[in-house]
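Today's session is about reading a structure prediction critically. Students often jump straight to the picture, but the first step is always the sequence itself: look for stretches that repeat, for charged clusters, for runs of hydrophobic residues. Only then move on to the predicted structure, which in these notes is written as discrete structure tokens rather than atom positions. Here is the chain we will use throughout the hour.
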Amino acid sequence: MQPKLVTIATFDSPMQAHIARNSLVAAGIVAMISNESIAGNAWHLTGAVGGVQLHVRADDVEAALKILDEQESIEFGLTDTPNAEYTDDGDSEFDQEYFEDDNDEDAAKGSSDLSETEADRLARRAFRAALLGVLFPPLQLYSYWLLLLYMFEPSVASKSSRWQVAGAWFTNLTVIAFLIQILTPPLPPKTID
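Below is the predicted structure for this chain, in token form.
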């Protein structure tokens, strides 16, 4: 007779379930995962089947829950034991310089994101549509439409956006020339009288 299995946890992804299962197996508790393939292949159905479930034997439920609680507190930094290897007193010049550099980079990134104009967005979308149009030629028409909107957009585009517009035009024209070459019938040979 097989032992009764009890579901002790459910997860959104198979990876989270395997991390928990590995913790239990390392502690000597036999654990199994169900619904893993459904969550991996049809992720939108994960909620319908109850998530990725972690099962243990009925005898091991208390020990398994204790291990998972300890693992969760370690993951989120909720342990009471301080890390003996590193203590942050906040006075280190390196720490201050490091965090100031990060803040400067974040501020620069944030300001560049805020300064993106409608012309920049149209250029980026036209370039992407042109590249995807190589695989699916009807997207070339959408790219042409975006380029037309770009031409009449009053906002100023950045230098990189102008390069994207040039790339979109080049890609569109190349694809159209290739399609015309393939779709037009060959000319009949000339007859010499």
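Discussion point for the tutorial: The mean pLDDT is 78.
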